[in-house]
Amino acid sequence: MALNKSMHPRNRYKDKPPDFGYLAAKYPDFEQHVHTSLTGRPVVNFKEPEAVRALTCTLLKEDFGLTIEIPLERLIPTVPLRLNYIHWVEDLIDGQKQPRRGIDIGTGASCIYPLLGATMNGWYFLATEVDDICFDYATKNVEQNNLSDLIKVVKVPQKTLLMDALKEETEIVYDFCMCNPPFFANQLEAKGVNSRNSRRPPPSSVNTGGVTEIMAEGGELEFVKRIIHDSLQLKKRLRWYSCMLGKKCSLAPLKEELRKQGVPKVTHTEFCQGRTMRWALAWSFYDDVIVPSPPSKKRKLEKARKPLSFTLPEAGLKELQAKASASGGAGGSPVDSIAALLEKTLTDLRVLHKRVPCRNQEQSLFLTAVENTWIHGRQKRREGSRQLRELPRAPHCAGTSSQPTAAGADPLQPTEQTSNGASSNETSKDVTRDPNGEQREVLEKVSGEDVDMESSISTEAGQETVPKEAPAAATDPPSKRPLTPGAVEHFLFKCLLNVMLEEGDVVIEMHWVEGQNKDLMNQLCTYLKNTLLKSVAKS
Question: Where does S-adenosyl-L-methionine bind (predicted)?
Answer without folding.
Answer: 82, 106, 129, 180
